[in-house]
Amino acid sequence: MSTALPSPYPLPAHFKKEQDVLQAAGCSCWASIAALSDQQLDQLSRRGGALERQLRKLRGQAQLVVELNLEPYQAALLLYAGIASSRGLAQSSPQQLITQLGRLERSLTGLAPARITPADVREWIRRAQQHISRSLK
Q1: Cα(94)–Cα(3) distance, rounded to whole angstroms?
Q2: Which of 15, 25, 38, 114 is most buried (most C-beta within 10 Å)?
Q3: Cβ(98)–Cβ(120) under 8 Å?
Q4: What is the DSSP string of the chain?
Q5: Is the distance from CB of 63 to CB of 86 less than 8 angstroms?
Q6: Interval 38-84: pLDDT, tens
Q7: Residue-wise pLDDT tens digits, 4-13
Q8: Which of 55, 63, 5, 3 shows the shortest CA–CA distance to 29?
Q9: First to last CA, the chain
Q10: pTM for the complete prediction?
């Protein structure tokens, strides 16, 4: 895994308005999206038709990318599986999450080989637990 985070852009087509608003606000990297406050998201949602719920999803994805050094698609998969934070991931059952992500991935990719392995999931949970313990110090 590289230490340099890829650009968040272009975002998927269903985030077009949110991308336009984020770029206009100067959010050019995952870290700047991750750092947005609730108040800033509210203000951004009032511009250009961006939906606050979509902006919150992007912020959650960005936080997982930045805090845990995940690939954007990995963070997006976790969000769609209901894991929206490092804390939520740290408290996850590896086996349950592997099963859930496997189902989700198959529903998205069909019969293509799984990109997420049990070792990946265990490593993500380990990183999340470390992140949480560091933030408590």
Answers
A1: 24
A2: 15
A3: no
A4: --SSPPP--SPPGGGHHHHHHHHHTT--SHHHHHT--HHHHHHHHTSTT--HHHHHHHHHHHHHHHHH---HHHHHHHHHTT--SHHHHHTS-HHHHHHHHHHHHHHHHTTSPPS--HHHHHHHHHHHHHHHHHHH-
A5: yes
A6: 999 999 999 878 999 999 999 999 999 999 999 998 999 999 889 98
A7: 677 899 999 9
A8: 5
A9: 26
A10: 0.86
Instruction: Name the one residue in this structure whose structure tokens are 């110090």.
Output: 137
Residue located via tokens 């049990």? 118
Token duo for residue 91:
């408290």
